[in-house]
Amino acid sequence: MEAVRKGGRAISDQVLIQKVKSGNDHAFRLLVEKYRSDLFRTIYAVLRDQKEAEDATQEVFIKIYTSLSQYENQGFKTWITRIAVNHAIDVKRKRNRLQEDIIDLAEYSTLGTPKESVETELIHKEKVFRIREKLHEMPENYRHVIYDFYIAEKTYGQMAEEQNVGIKTIETKLYRARTWMRKHWKEDDFS
């Protein structure tokens, strides 16, 4: 059983895990320090991009922290490595899907579309992609109106007719949803 040294004595992973489960954040920091390099190397082997690997490593530690209650003493390093590999594969898949969208746009542009409209379309597709990723974070009452307006590209009139409400109601819903987005999401998420 691997251990972390603290004050000259060894602390096992199991002891640290129990302390984390009891609410000791310092014990989790010790686990992060111990396994950060190993997880980074594992994730980097899948992604082959340092910045993505650094970001993914941080995300993995968040997943580990939130999933620690489900850990059942089956080999901690194996368990966290499996979480890291699965997360890295998910990140790579998302990246590949975005690249496929870009390739689709490039093929579309060879059909005689002006360069500026291709760039505009690419920016639009990226924003739609990011909105779709973050849509699940929104409260249910805002999710539908944001999806209809930004992704399905429906007009206020179409939305009002489908929901059997007035256009002013749709405007109010969109205003509140946008306010929620400004409050909870960073602009960097979409630029």
Give structural notes:
The chain has 2 domains: 113 residues, RNA polymerase sigma factor, region 2, helix turn helix motif (Rna Polymerase Sigma Factor, Chain: A); 78 residues, Arc Repressor Mutant, subunit A, CATH 1.10.10. A hairpin with a 2-residue loop joins strand 1 and strand 2. A two-stranded antiparallel ribbon has the order 1-2. It is mainly alpha-helical. The model has no long low-confidence stretch (mean pLDDT 81). Helix 2 packs across helix 3, helix 4 runs antiparallel to helix 5 and helix 7 crosses helix 8.
The share of residues in helices is over 70%
Q: What's the story with the biggest beta sheet?
A: 2 strands, antiparallel
| β-strand amount | under 5%
The number of distinct helices, counting runs of at least 4 residues, comes to: 8
Low-confidence stretches: none
Strand order in the largest sheet = 1-2
Using DSSP, what is the number of strands? 2
Look at the helices and sheets and give the structural class: mainly alpha
N-to-C SSE series?
EEHHHHHHHH
Molecular shape: elongated
CATH topology of the largest domain: Rna Polymerase Sigma Factor, Chain: A
The CATH homology group name of the largest domain: RNA polymerase sigma factor, region 2, helix turn helix motif
Q: Note the gap between the termini.
A: 46 Å
CATH class categorisation of the largest domain: Mainly Alpha
| Overall pLDDT level | 81
The tally of structural domains comes to 2
CATH architecture annotation of the largest domain: Orthogonal Bundle
CA radius of gyration? 23 Å
